[in-house]
Design goal:
This protein is mainly α. The protein is built from 27 helices and no strands. The longest helix is centred in the N-terminal third of the chain and has 21 residues. It starts with a helix and ends with a helix. The relative contact order is 0.06.
Length: 493
């Protein structure tokens, strides 16, 4: 009897110690709720799962995802300080409870490192983010060797490979030192293949939301500006209209110059109290309505600056409010918006840097040029050209106004497929503006690179992409250099 009791005790102890990973339907539902920003419901499912199966390693991954998405959405420094200790706790839980012979053992660790890297970038902790990306890359690389059929590896590897392909030349030593290799084409192909696999696999359908976000970023920001987004738009339209999917759809409409469609999707989608409010959508809607010169554009921009507690795009929003009040002849409110621009927000995002740069000349913008700029950005090219034609000769004596005038004409001709005329005005912009602390010359060089790449003239395309990279004394140097690097990468690959 004594030996039987010892055997039973040992058996139960062994059974209790077994590592556990259960991606059951409840956990899959919680993951979907994460991507839908329904965090209260997701947390409730996680708590219920932990009561039933306290050692389920997947719950730590889900909890970590909620922490990081909230940090990215809210940019709260207080939450960042209080939640960052959860990373180590969640990693420990996974390493202790996930079977070591499972592809999820390294995959979940890599995911947690990546999630925190993205959150840390939002909070300007770049050193920690770089170290976590390195850990994630190494874990995923090792996992691919051990489990080549485990296709979820490609979900994150695809994004990393695409991003690696855009690292500026000044930092190429870093990717070489860490052993990072990849191209945009490779990364995009991996993301597309993984998306299709997830769509066919009922156990991984929730990941389609995450992958489509990555694809929107890569296709919208790192591909040639002439790319057709219709295929990606169709895939997005087939998904439920969550805040994340609405953001992706609106972003692609904006990239395509289809401003009315962006406004329609942003206005027609009403989220209930179950969804965490995504204030950046208010900023986007206000920006889009301003591009159409709508009288209620201020409503959404004010909603953003009055409710969002983070610091990114605050200066950009106040810049648009400044423009709005100038256009609608409210000098008092325009001055208030300008003062708020100078004292609020930070200078991390290129849009915020440009917002401050717009005020450095200590002069009011040309209203005709401003209207042309906004209308062009919204895809209203004929109306924009009409506003340019209203610019007075007196205003064009100002060299900054003249440079913008020439650049805007080039952009309109480019969008109207009058390529030869566009080239002439881009060249003039480059000639007149490469020594000025404005972004027009660098942007002109980038667009010339895009034109010549599309025409198959790789030598000229490379010349202009490198020219764009060499022009650094402007607010958009990070994003324009990244796009130029992406162009060089496309040609060389």
């Amino acid at each position: 009897m004594k030996y039987k009791l010892i055997f039973i005790f040992c058996f139960l102890s062994f059974f209790k110690a077994q590592a556990v990973l259960d991606r059951n339907k409840n956990c899959q539902k919680a993951l979907l709720f994460c991507f839908e920003f329904r965090f209260i419901e997701a947390k409730k499912i996680i708590e219920e799962e932990q009561k039933i199966n306290s050692k389920n390693a997947y719950t730590a991954y889900l909890s970590n995802y909620i922490d990081c998405i909230n940090l990215i959405l809210d940019e709260s420094e207080l939450d960042y300080k209080s939640l960052k200790n959860n990373k180590k706790k969640n990693l420990t839980f996974i390493t202790e409870n996930c079977p070591k012979n499972s592809p999820y053992y390294r995959f979940l660790q890599a995911e947690i490192n990546l999630q925190w890297a993205f959150a840390r970038v939002k909070h300007e902790d770049y050193v920690s983010a770089a170290l976590e990306i390195n850990k994630a890359y190494n874990l995923l690389s090792e996992n691919e060797k051990l489990y080549p059929e485990f296709y979820l590896n490609k979900k994150s590897m695809g994004l990393l490979h695409a991003l690696i392909g855009t690292i500026p030349e000044d930092y190429q030593w870093l990717s070489s030192t860490l052993g990072f290799k990849g191209t945009i084409k490779q990364g995009l192909n991996e993301l597309k293949a993984t998306y299709m696999a997830c769509e066919l696999d009922s156990n991984n359908k929730a990941y389609a939301h995450e992958i489509i976000l990555y694809r929107t970023f890569v296709e919208g920001n790192l591909q040639n500006s002439k790319v057709d987004f219709s295929s990606l738009q169709n895939e997005l339209n087939s998904l439920p209209k969550t805040p994340l999917i609405v953001f992706c759809i609106a972003s692609l409409h904006i990239k395509s110059g289809n401003n009315d469609a962006a406004i329609k999707i942003l206005q027609s989608t009403n989220f209930n109290s179950k969804h965490k409010h995504f204030y950046y959508l208010d900023y986007l809607l206000g920006d889009c309505k301003l591009k159409r010169l709508d009288a209620d554009a201020d409503k959404y921009l004010l909603r953003y600056v009055n409710n969002f507690k983070g610091k990114n795009y605050i200066k950009a929003a106040y810049l648009r409010l400044w423009w709005y009040y100038l256009l609608f002849n409210n000098k008092t409110q325009a001055n208030n918006a300008l003062q708020n621009l100078l004292k609020n927000g930070n200078l991390i995002a290129d849009e915020d840097k440009q917002a401050v740069n717009e005020t450095k000349q200590n002069a009011l913008p040309s209203l005709s040029l401003l209207k042309a700029r906004l209308l062009f950005d919204g895809g209203y090219y004929e109306k924009a050209l009409g506003k340019l034609q209203q610019t007075s000769k007196t205003e064009l004596i100002n060299k900054n106004f003249y440079l913008e005038y020439v650049y805007r004409i080039a952009r309109i001709f480019d969008k109207q497929l009058k390529t030869e005329k566009a080239k002439q005005f881009y060249e003039l912009t480059l000639q007149k503006g490469e020594k000025e602390p404005l972004y027009f010359a660098a942007s002109a060089a980038l667009h010339l690179g895009n034109i010549y790449e599309k025409e198959g003239n790789e030598a000229k395309a490379l010349y202009y992409y490198k020219k764009c990279q060499s022009l650094k004394n402007h607010a958009y140097k990070n994003s324009l250099s990244q796009k130029a690097k992406a162009g060089i990468n496309r040609i060389n690959s």
